[in-house]
Backbone:
């Protein structure tokens, strides 16, 4: 499929999304600086999240509305307050998208309810992302699919049946421009919990291209995922983790994202096709194989022995597999040391 002017698929280099999320730290200037840095670091797109605290949750402290997991980055935080802190003000979307256009990269968003979809449509968003936690929100998926824009669907925690329902819902709404993302919904995620071997299975099971929404540290998992066939990689992005922010802990800095750009592209280039016998680029290297050579000056009729016949580089003589067969044979003419052995030299 196409997002803006970029092809997304196995015939194109990996499409890289820099997820801004709440790393703007409530500053539009910082948000615009993140766009600048993402573009300079090789991102194909900057991604936002479009919601308000009101559209995400209720402003209550009842059980379930406060994060109780002591291992969570946001332990003890009320959901409403966390979303209020992390959300991107809607009046920032236009300037951020305009800055992305100036850099020649795409900018789109994750809508979390139907009002967000309508708002993003008014801005001409080129694509949509469905978050892992909304993959079961079939009415939202139906609404997004009806726009006809490309859809990127994260599948963290989702069962096979739930992914199938999401894909079928989008297709039934007339949209087949879908990429689903292997995702582990922990923040940060560990490589051990990422299971990227699922990627080719997902492509076969659901008949769509597959990418990776990656919350691990570094770029190793993403590079490996591209090797497994991922056509798209999404990573959280910040100017500097030391600046803090709701998602900064598991976000890439600009230099790291540049490495991601370079290494995922190398991984994609390396996949190639099944091939044996060497490539055209390797032809000159054949000269450095071993082969059979005359090791000492010999007169016509002299016998080939382990002293007069050697297996050495370069590779212009007979292959080494004929060594035993040649021992005991006699040369048909006088030869000097360094002569490659050929069939017409032996009798």
Residues:
């Amino acid at each position: 499929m196409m997002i803006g002017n970029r092809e997304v698929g196995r015939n194109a280099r990996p499409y890289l999304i820099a997820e801004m999320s709440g790393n703007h730290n409530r500053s539009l200037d910082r948000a615009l600086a993140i766009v600048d840095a993402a573009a300079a670091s090789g991102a194909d797109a900057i991604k936002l999240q479009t919601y308000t605290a009101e559209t995400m949750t209720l402003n209550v402290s009842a059980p379930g509305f406060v994060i109780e997991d002591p291992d969570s980055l946001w332990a003890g935080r009320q959901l409403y307050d966390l979303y209020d802190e992390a959300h991107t003000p809607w009046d920032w979307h236009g300037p951020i998208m305009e800055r992305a256009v100036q850099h020649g990269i795409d900018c789109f968003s994750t809508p979390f309810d139907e009002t967000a979809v309508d708002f993003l449509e008014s801005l001409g968003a080129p694509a949509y992302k469905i978050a892992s936690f909304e993959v079961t929100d079939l009415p939202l998926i139906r609404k997004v699919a009806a726009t006809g824009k490309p859809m990127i669907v994260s599948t963290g925690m989702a069962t096979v049946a739930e992914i199938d329902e999401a894909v079928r819902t989008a297709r039934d709404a007339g949209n087949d421009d879908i990429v689903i993302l292997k995702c582990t919904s922990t923040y940060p995620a560990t490589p051990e919990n990422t299971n990227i071997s699922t990627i080719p299975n997902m492509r076969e099971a659901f008949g769509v291209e597959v990418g990776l929404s990656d919350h691990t540290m570094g770029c190793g998992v993403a590079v490996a995922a591209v090797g497994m066939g991922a056509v798209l990689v999404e990573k959280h992005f910040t100017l500097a983790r030391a600046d803090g922010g709701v998602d900064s802990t598991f976000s890439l800095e600009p230099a790291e994202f540049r490495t991601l750009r370079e290494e995922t592209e190398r991984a994609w280039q390396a996949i190639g096709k099944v091939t044996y016998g060497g490539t055209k680029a390797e032809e000159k290297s054949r000269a450095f194989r071993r082969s059979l050579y005359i090791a000492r000056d010999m007169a016509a009729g002299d016998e080939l022995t382990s002293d007069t016949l050697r297996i050495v580089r370069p590779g212009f003589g007979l292959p080494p597999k004929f060594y035993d067969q040649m021992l005991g044979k006699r040369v048909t003419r006088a030869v000097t040391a360094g002569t490659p052995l050929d069939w017409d030299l032996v009798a």
